[in-house]
Amino acid sequence: MAESVLVTGATGLVGGALVRHFAAEGRRVYAAARNVEKARAQFGGLANVEIAEWDVVGQRFPAFGGRAGAPRPPYDVEWLVHAAAETATRHFVERPVETIASILDGTRNALEFARACGVKSMVYVSSMEVYGAPSAETVTEADIGYLDPVRLRSNYPEAKRMAENLCVAYASEYGVPVKIARLAQTFGEGVRPEDNRVYAQFARAILAGRDIVLKTDGSASRCYCAVSDVVAAIAMLLEKGENATPYTVANEDTFCSVREMAERLIAAYPESGSCLVFDMSEEAARSYPPSSRLKLDSSRLRALGWEPQVGLMEMFGRMMEGMRG
């Protein structure tokens, strides 16, 4: 069992959950973040956690204990999870150049650090968006579909695809033991109240007793996954995953359209008085990925022994409990 693990994007939803998980297991955890004060506010009271200042896009190596430079003892890292990423659709549309650069430069720097440290295992946190618009009824890791490279919103999935290829290249040329986790949309405990992704918008509307407003026709169909289930999947991949191999991380039982998800949530909380309304515009059409059906198959990950534990409505319940607090 690895004694030390470094997590990039430690102040994000998945990164923060990973830091707390590994710290609870008694491992030495390096929480790598660009904003040190934010990281201290989140993890300052946790034993076994050291904050490492790292703008993974602009810095080749993190600064341990205020000292930058090449990794060296006693700051050895046995496991590395690269979870740093921008996830806001608005950012993809308004800052597409920065989105591409942050994914590619950040991933390369994380891989270089893993190579320099000689880590025993690494997981790159990718996205279900790499699948594009596949033709398969149920999508496995082999079913990569169409992406329009000249559509502005494609900058995020195209960059994620290239970052995955960087992982494969580093595994082949330098022997970096990296695995790829393709996450379905992930939520649950820890989602911040100001998060603007669709599930957070829905939760805020229910809590405030407002109508849920859809900016599309709601036909896009996806799988989702709870934060706790994603953490368990990444931990399993670090120990059991095959190098240079992608794994879909999704709860197949959550598959539904955006409209169906909204309707189920409204039905589960009738006391909110919320209704479903539509307000579609040309701007929304630019901001959201094309409507598609993406029914994911997590069989490869399940073969390692992983099973999701949290259903869709429980995910909403956990998220909303945190938002109330």
Summary?
The chain has helices at 13-24, 36-43, 89-94, 96-117, 155-174, 198-208, 227-240, 258-268, 282-287, 299-302, 312-324; strands at residues 4-8, 28-33, 49-53, 63-64, 79-82, 121-127, 178-183, 185-187, 212-214, 221-226, 246-249, 251-257, 276-278. The chain is an alpha/beta fold and 325 residues long.
Task: For this entry, give a set of tags.
three-stranded mixed beta sheet, 11 helices, alpha/beta, Rossmann fold, eight-stranded mixed beta sheet
Structure report:
By secondary structure, this protein is α/β, with parallel strands linked by helices. The chain has helices at residues 13-24, 36-43, 89-94, 96-117, 155-174, 198-208, 227-240, 258-268, 282-287, 299-302, 312-324; strands spanning 4-8, 28-33, 49-53, 63-64, 79-82, 121-127, 178-183, 185-187, 212-214, 221-226, 246-249, 251-257, 276-278. Strands 4-3-2-1-5-6-7-11 form an eight-stranded mixed beta sheet, with helices on both faces. It has a three-stranded mixed beta sheet with strand order 8-10-12. Strands 9-13 form a two-stranded parallel ribbon. The mean pLDDT is 92.
